[in-house]
Amino acid sequence: MKRFIRIFSIVIGVLFLILVVGPFLVPVPALDDTRPAEELMDPDSRFIEVNGLRVHYKIQGQGEPVFILLHGFGASLFSWREVMMPLSEHGTIIAYDRPAFGLTERPLEWDDESPYSQQSQVELVIGLMDVLNIEKAILVGNSAGGTISMMTALQFPDRVQALILVDPAVYAGGGAPNWIYPILKTPQMDHLGPLIARQIKVRGPELIDLAWHDPSKVTPEITNGYTKPLQVENWDKALWYLTISSQESRLVEQLNEVTHPTLVITGDDDRIVPTEQSIQLAGELPNAILRVIPQCGHVPHEECPNEFIQIIEEFLASVLFQDTLR
Q1: Which one in 20, 50, 284, 286 has a CA-CA gap of 20 to 30 Å to 225?
Q2: pTM for the structure as a whole
């Protein structure tokens, strides 16, 4: 028995060492193909300081209403390229890169709340509005951007004129189960995290195809637009920090409190946020209407921009302050 206990203790000790020390033995080489964000900006790119963060954004149009566009996970303001100009006929259009994406600054240290957390992202929306002197805005959020849009409307209802939720991640999305985060935040996972985040560079094309009903429409230019931010310094570490800063949004428990005029748009072939979830959401929100675009996927503003714009124009004309369209 003593020998068995001794052997068992040795086995447990070895396993413990493997778990504790092993991850640190995995090499995580530095990225050698990155550049400052300024070297990747477009002619119409702008940068603005918001809540201590240097935010990359673009703006088109003028006057009211003001639309603020929030992209989804793995995307950037590039994803709104097809609809910014048409929407600008109806007001001011502002698209920006959410933290950890696009060309927005990727801090690696901070004093208080992580800039990648959902709460910081909500405060970033309001901070952006404050810096640009915007009293109210229509928030247009795709996927995880829809999650942040709804959270902003709940916390700052007087600052949100309406919501346009595009295949929003509400029932499945907005964070992993809470029990996993203590594991993700260990020093071992902090070491391996950037290496895990780099997998998006490998799986990116597959995820883009999954987001489209017809992947044959994904041109090399579109792929390049999505992958360009993966040249920004520290993109891998920032993506990992976003991952461990996420949490369950708990929006499902508060749907009856979202009383703003709301338009839910989804493709009929969304394989990332299933179409049925958007249909369910529109039915559970107190003041929402639903539009389903045939033969379209998770990013209708990219894949089906003409139908997308028409639906929004009908929403503006029938639901929102018609005098803003004159």
Answers
A1: 50
A2: 0.88
Strand-pairing partners, residue 49, are 54
The CA-atom distances, in angstroms, between 22 and each of 14, 19, 191, 192, 217 are 10, 6, 11, 11, 44
114, 120 contact by CB (below 8 A): yes
Residues 184, 163: Cα–Cα separation, whole Å:
33
**What residue ranges do the domains of the chain occupy?**
35-319
229 neighbors 242 (Cβ within 8 angstroms): no
Whole-number Å distance between alpha carbons of 75 and 176: 19
CATH architecture of 35-319: 3-Layer(aba) Sandwich (3.40)
Encode pLDDT of 278-300 as tens digits.
999 999 999 999 999 999 999 99
- Over residues 35-47, the pLDDT tens digits come to 899 999 999 999 9
Q: At 114, is the secondary structure helix, strand, or coil? A: coil
With 0-12 / 13-18 / 19 or more C-beta atoms within 10 angstroms meaning exposed / middle / buried, residue 31 is middle
- pLDDT above 50: residue 132: yes
CA atoms within 13 A of residue 136's CA, in its CB half-sphere: 11
Helix 187-197 / helix 199-211 crossing angle, nearest 10 deg: 50
CB neighbourhood size of 105 (10 A): 20
